[in-house]
Amino acid sequence: MQPWQPLLDWWFGPEAAAGEVAAARQGLWFGKKDQQDRDARERFGAWVEQALDGGLAEWSAVPDGWLALVILLDQLPRMIFRDSPRGFAGDARAQALVSEGLARGLERDLAPIRQVFIYLVLEHAEDLASQERALYRYRLLLDGAADAERELFANFFDFSERHRAVIARFGRFPHRNAVLGRPSSAEETEFLQKPGSRF
User: Fold this and answer.
1) Total of domains in the chain
2) Which of 133, 46, 53 is nearest to 98 (CA)?
3) 18: nearest Cα among 145, 108, 130
4) In whole angstroms, what is the distance from residue 12 CA to residue 28 CA?
5) Where is the signal peptide (predicted)?
6) Is 168 contained in some domain?
7) For position 78, what pLDDT does the model report?
8) Can you give the pTM of this predicted structure?
9) In this structure, what are the phi and psi dihedrals at residue 196, rounded to the nearest 5 degrees?
């Protein structure tokens, strides 16, 4: 077994159709539960620390290892260090890894539901060019989706559009300001009072 396999098994569960995987794992991916955060820390906290320190680079040689390393840098810090600046500490390295991997075409060997978590790194970036790349990639997933899975991938595309709109307007995600110690503008403060302003 490859060293990263326990992480992929935990994150995605058994191989299945995209709709089944998402139905089973949606709460883990996008829910906010203390027990899930503790579970992430207990199972993979040491790997997250290694990844944040620049380690595990050898994983990125192959698609599944690349995906696992990206998840360690982008998704798990947001759980393990929730509501802390360290939650975003892996973003720069994750973005670099995604750019390198896409240039090598590594995403082509990943199932579409797994590609979602590569493009999510671009969607998390406070950078309009990255947002445009994310939107393009989610559009490709939607265009290639089977009829039974179009709604699922349309939802991912919709969220990408919403993230892009925020970055196009503000150049950053205002909902991160408090955690990162950034003052909010009057326009951002007003925006944060609206439903759907926080992801």
Assistant:
1) 1
2) 133
3) 145
4) 9
5) none
6) yes
7) 97
8) 0.96
9) 80, 10
Residue 198 lies in a domain: no
Q: Is residue 197 domain-resident?
A: no
Residue labelled with tokens 């390295």: 93
Selection from 179, 134, 187 nearest residue 161 by Cα = 134
Handedness of CA 53, 128, 12, 108 (dihedral sign): negative
CA distance 107 to 140: 12
pLDDT digits (tens, 9 = 90+) for 30-78: 999 999 999 999 999 999 999 999 999 999 999 999 999 999 999 999 9
CA 182 to chain centre: 22
Please give the average per-residue pLDDT across 101-125, as a whole number.
Answer: 98
Residue 115: predicted pLDDT: 98
The type of residue at 117 is F
CA separation (Å) from 116 to 31, 75, 120, 156? 16, 12, 6, 8
How far is residue 198's CA from residue 124's CA, in Å, rounded to a whole number?
12
Residue span of the structural domain in which 85 resides: 5-192
- The CATH number that applies at residue 44 is 1.25.40.10
Tell whether 156 is covered by a domain. yes
d(CA 37, CA 119): 22
